[in-house]
Structure formats: C-alpha cells, structure tokens
Design a protein that fits this description.
This protein has about 160 residues and is of the alpha+beta class. It has one domain: Peptide methionine sulphoxide reductase MsrA (Peptide Methionine Sulfoxide Reductase, Chain A). Helices cover about 25% and strands about 25% of the residues. It catalyses: [thioredoxin]-disulfide + L-methionine + H2O = L-methionine (S)-S-oxide + [thioredoxin]-dithiol; L-methionyl-[protein] + [thioredoxin]-disulfide + H2O = L-methionyl-(S)-S-oxide-[protein] + [thioredoxin]-dithiol.
Length: about 160
C-alpha cells in the first residue's frame, strides 16, 4: 500500500461521486469528507467554506491522476459555480485539491482539454485549490449509496468517451 497515491476532488454531493469512483480501475479506496474550508473538525451540519469532497486512494500502476481527472469531468457538471443538480452552495463547488505543482499542472492541462473539446456548452469553472486537511465525514455518509442503493445522487456518466 505504500506505493499507492491519494487524490482529492469535489464535484457536488460526495455520495454520488464516491459511488461512481469506487469501481474504477486502479481505485483502491474511497472516503467522503470535507476539504478546503475554515474550521477544524467540520461536520455535515457545520463545515463553513469546506467542499463535500472525496479522497481517492489509487494504484499509480493501474491508473493515473490524469485519468482520475478525466473521469471526474465526465461525471459532474464542471461549468456551474457552486451547484450540482439540486444542491447549491460552496459545499457543492467543483474543485481539484492539488498536492504539488505536478498535479496542479495536470489539472490545468485537463481543464484546457475539456474546454477545447466543446462537449460542455460553457467553460469549466472548477477551482484549483492547494490541498488542505481532508476531514473524514461522519460514518453515516461513508458508502452511502452502497447502503442505500436508491438514495440521492446527481452524478452519472454524462460522456462515455474519454477526454484524453
């Protein structure tokens, strides 16, 4: 497990993103939580400035950060500011939390590729934010759609083919 890496993204309600990513090749673990906000130990009821994000543990021999971002841009609408489906507010923003300059550069490149593709009517508004502490969400939010298969989600594959 020491050769595994982690990626941190947010794109609306964390339940749906986690559910779609959990079965992707190379993804070894998913956790939902809060990232990029103002307080320590955020909770579902109090997480000012935090996005509902996911922590992806992946094997870089089986997938890449760029492939993760490619799928990320296909399962949520990255052109809406602070909104996904019925969910509104900064908690539901589209964001990539980069851990180093290489990840930041790859994220910038992916945004350019997505914009150039013309698949989305508007330009990507996904923010690039430096990684900050990822706070794991409460147990009832982990694996939510596994436990409640007909539970709420606004995520689905909008595009079958890859951007890359």
């Amino acid at each position: 497990m020491s050769s595994y890496k982690k990626a941190y993204i947010a794109g609306g309600c964390f339940w749906g993103m986690e559910d779609l990513f959990r079965t992707r090749p190379g993804i070894k673990d998913t956790e939902v939580g809060y990232i990029g906000g103002e307080n320590d130990n955020p909770t579902y009821k109090y997480h000012p400035g935090h996005a509902e994000g996911i922590e992806l543990t992946y094997n870089p021999n089986e997938t890449s950060f760029k492939a993760i971002l490619d799928y990320f841009f296909r399962i949520h609408n990255p052109t809406t500011i602070d909104r996904q489906g019925n969910d509104k507010g900064s908690s539901y923003r589209s964001a990539i939390f980069f851990q180093n300059e290489e990840e930041k550069k790859e994220a910038e490149e992916m945004i350019s590729i997505v914009n150039a593709s013309g698949k989305w009517e508007d330009d990507v508004v996904t923010t690039l934010e430096p990684y900050s502490t990822f706070w794991q969400a409460e147990p009832e939010h982990q694996d939510y759609l596994v436990r409640i298969p007909n539970g709420y989600t606004c995520h689905f594959e909008r595009f079958q083919e890859s951007f890359i």
